[in-house]
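Table S2 (text version). Query chain:
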Amino acid sequence: HGDPFHFRPPKTLDDAFLFGLGIGLYWGEGNKKNKMSVRLGNTDPKLIKMYLRFLHKIYGAERRKIRFGLQVFSDMKPVLALRFWSKALRFPVSHFWKVVVTPARSIGTYREKTKHGVLTVHFSNKKLRDMLVSQIENL
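Corresponding structure-token output:
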């Protein structure tokens, strides 16, 4: 592949869709404050899977270098949430950091959405982070 963080311009309609989706997700949901890594948090496994596909296919991000943070509420079982995400994303538990437990909030629609916690994708690479921020600025 050469440089692992070389932007691969989309060659197919599917890749163009994936690129647009990935940039949009990072723009809307990503943490741009951290200058050393690409981070994105969400509660939807399908969204996270698409974002991981974007990082890998468009930018060549290696699976083995991806890590996850998981935040759950105190009325949830951290081990079950961890198992859910590990299985849903097909990543071993070794890719997950210690689960962060926060006090439970009031019952509402957000609670239903977060029944498996909030997962954050972490990819530590300044070059990739700068490339994504630059892509957004160029829109």
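Notes on Table S2: The beta strands are 30-31, 37-42, 67-73, 100-102, 118-124. The radius of gyration is 16 Å.
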